[in-house]
Write a sequence for this structure.
């Protein structure tokens, strides 16, 4: 696989093309050994509803769905692997801190304690580089170009 030329083509899905709707921007993908690293930003994500939930102390989450696909027109099922990244923020009114948890495929990978609201917004929407896929599990099926797709919910 290492000797084969593998190109990572970036494809970003957005729910709508409207300017104020949340959208993924700046998706960057890199290979580090057999790991696929992704970095991206979710623009216009924290609307008034999410902000009120967060300030009220409710767990507020953004779910990112990531897909690793083979780039080929003649393949029926091009999906190689899927993964989810969930970013959950909780406000502690007593301590006046926010805790942000990152879960990849349901497993906690990182937690941060922050004090400023802007830091929380950045932590929830500016992600990476994170190892989101491992090519060793899809080595035989991943020949040629590979697409990485990201969608926020």
């Amino acid at each position: 696989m290492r000797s084969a030329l593998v190109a990572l083509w970036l494809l970003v899905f957005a729910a709508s093309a409207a300017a104020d709707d949340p959208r993924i921007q700046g998706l960057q993908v890199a290979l580090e050994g057999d790991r696929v690293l992704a970095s991206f930003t979710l623009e216009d994500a924290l609307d008034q509803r999410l902000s009120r939930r967060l300030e009220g102390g409710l767990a507020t989450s953004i779910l990112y769905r990531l897909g690793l696909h083979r780039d080929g027109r003649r393949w029926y099922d091009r999906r190689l692997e899927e993964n989810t990244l969930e970013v959950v923020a909780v406000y502690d009114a007593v301590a006046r801190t926010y805790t942000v948890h990152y879960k990849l495929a349901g497993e906690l990978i990182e937690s941060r304690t922050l004090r400023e609201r802007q830091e929380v917004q950045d932590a929830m929407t500016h992600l990476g580089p994170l190892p989101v896929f491992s090519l060793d599990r899809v080595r035989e099926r991943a020949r040629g170009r590979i697409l990485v797709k990201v969608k926020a919910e």
About this structure: The longest strand covers residues 79-92. Helices lie at 48-55, 117-125. The first helix runs from residue 48 to 55. The beta strands are 8-12, 23-32, 35-43, 60-70, 79-92, 97-104, 107-114, 126-134, 146-152.
